[in-house]
Amino acid sequence: MTTIGIIGAGAIGSAFARALARKGLKAIISNSRGPASLVDLARELGPSITPGTREQAAAQDIVLVAVNWSKLPSALSGLPGFDGRIVIDANNPIEAPLFKPAELHGRTSSEIFTDLVPGARVVKAFNHLPAHLISDNPQAGGGQRVLFFAGDDANAKAAVGKLIEQIDFFGIDLGSLADGDELFQIPGGPLSVHNLVRVESMRRDV
């Protein structure tokens, strides 16, 4: 059984945990303040979500990271190598309150992120929608809410695609990490923020 960890309990990390909890999927959630600070959140979400340390969350098969861009280095420093495990990059190079794009010095955000998680197979996902659209019922709007994902490892993408399906979203693979940065990263991605819904086409027998 695939295990799931979450590093970052802000808007996106908590929304992802809610989506998992809605389906009874187990996860360990962590933040910089320690497990005791997450007891109330875990109690609200239900028994499938457990507070833990960064190290415990990072040891799982699939690890979602959702941390303010400037805090990513400290959030990920000191962790053991990921040894081929899957890490979901749910981050964008932008921060409140000014929402000014970070200076990437000619690199993509996923390149920078990948350097922070040595040995990981990185998949970009859960970063292009507002948090409430991740935690809300994805079957709303007359169809199935779309989640984009991208990565350079086909097997890792397949695993994340399966997870997206498990929580009732419709996943669309948009190619490589570089493609993901270009297409659905905030800011600038033409597919970012849009609440797209897949609607089954109606067939008419002739």
Describe the structure.
- This protein has about 210 residues and is of the alpha/beta class.
- The protein has one domain (about 5-200): Rossmann fold, CATH 3.40.50.
- The protein is built from eight helices and eleven strands.
- The chain has helices at about 10-20, 40-45, 55-60, 70-75, 110-115, 130-135, 155-165, 175-185; strands spanning about 5, 25-30, 50, 60-65, 85-90, 95, 100, 120-125, 145-150, 170-175, 195-200.
- The strands form two sheets. Strands 1, 2, 3, 4, 5, 8, 9, 10 and 11 form a nine-stranded mixed beta sheet that branches. It has a two-stranded antiparallel sheet with strand order 6-7.
List keywords for this structure.
31% helix, single chain, nine-stranded mixed sheet, 8 helices, Rossmann fold, two-stranded antiparallel sheet, alpha/beta, 206 residues
Percent helix: 25-40%
Strand content: 15-25%
Give me the strand/helix succession.
EHEHEHEHEEEHEHEHEHE
Distance between the termini: 46 Å
In round numbers, the mean pLDDT is 94
Q: Roughly how many Å is the radius of gyration?
A: 17 Å
Shape: globular
CATH class: Alpha Beta
Task: Tell me the structural class.
Answer: alpha/beta
CATH fold group: Rossmann fold
Annotated CATH architecture: 3-Layer(aba) Sandwich
Number of helices: 8
- Count of folded domains: 1
Question: How many strands?
Answer: 11
Please state the oligomeric state of the protein chains shown: single chain
Look at the structure and name the CATH superfamily. Answer: NAD(P)-binding Rossmann-like Domain
